[in-house]
Amino acid sequence: MLNPISLAFKKTKKEMRPALITYTVAGDSSKKQSLEILKAISNYADILEVGVPHNTPVADGGQIQTSAYRAIKNGIKMNDIFEIVSDFKKSKNSKPVIFMGYYNMIFQYGENNFIKQCKKSGVNGLIVVDLPWPENKVFSKKCKKNSINFIQLLSPTTSNKRLKSITKDSHDMIYYISMLSTTGGKLKESPKKILANYKKIKYINPKKNCVIGFGITEKTISNFKNTDGLVVGSQICKEITRSLSSRQNPVINVSKLVSKLRKKIS
Amino acid sequence: MKLKKGIPVIDQADKLGFWGGKFGGNFVPETLKKPIEDLEKQFNKLKSNKKFIKERDKYFKNWIGTPTRFIKLNNLTRHVGGAQIWSKVVSDANGGAHKIYNATVHCLLAKRSGKKVIIGDTGAGYAGKMLSMAAKKFGLKCKIFMGAKDIYRQQPNVKAMKKNGADVIPVYSGSQTLVDAVSECMRYWVANCDTTAMCVGSTVGPAIFVRICGWSTSQISRELKVQLMNEFGDIPKKIKLYNCVGGGSSSFGFWNEFMDYDKKQVEFIGVEAGGPAKSKRHAAPLTYGSKIGILHGAAQYVNQNNDGQIEETESISAGLDYPGISPLHCFLKDTKRARYTAASDEEALKAYQTVTKYENLRPSLEPSHAFSVAIKEAKRLSKDTIVIINSCGDAYKDRGILEKKLGKKYVKSN
Ligand SMILES: Cc1ncc(COP(=O)(O)O)c(C=O)c1O
Question: Which pTM was predicted?
Answer without folding.
Answer: 0.97
